[in-house]
Design a protein that fits this description.
transmembrane; membrane; Holin, phage phi LC3 family; mainly alpha
Length: 95
């Protein structure tokens, strides 16, 4: 996955939110808890620990992260387009 412009992706707050939710959503859905119930670091840590010990949950997280990272507009393997690989910061749409 060296053909992904990680520097630009991690500087984009939308990508960061998408990545965090792609990890938390499958975990909270599997355990049937709401985000409001994760009101202490201890509870969050316990849920994450339980998730890491569960292969089914880990596979759900892996699929979700894949969907967050994959660019469906680029054919083939997981990568950014040649143009996107050259970006120094997230591109703004200019009209």
């Amino acid at each position: 996955m060296k053909n992904i412009n990680w520097k630009v992706r991690f500087s984009n707050p939308v990508f960061l939110a998408q990545l965090v939710l792609s990890v938390l959503a499958p975990i909270t859905l599997y355990f049937g808890i709401t985000y409001e119930e994760l009101n202490t670091w201890g509870k969050l840590g316990q849920v994450l620990f339980d998730a890491v010990r569960n292969p089914y949950v880990l596979s759900g997280v892996a699929v979700s992260v894949y969907n967050a990272v994959n660019d469906p507009t680029t054919a083939g393997v997981i990568k950014d387009s040649i143009r996107a690989q050259g970006y120094e910061k997230p591109k703004k749409d200019v009209r």
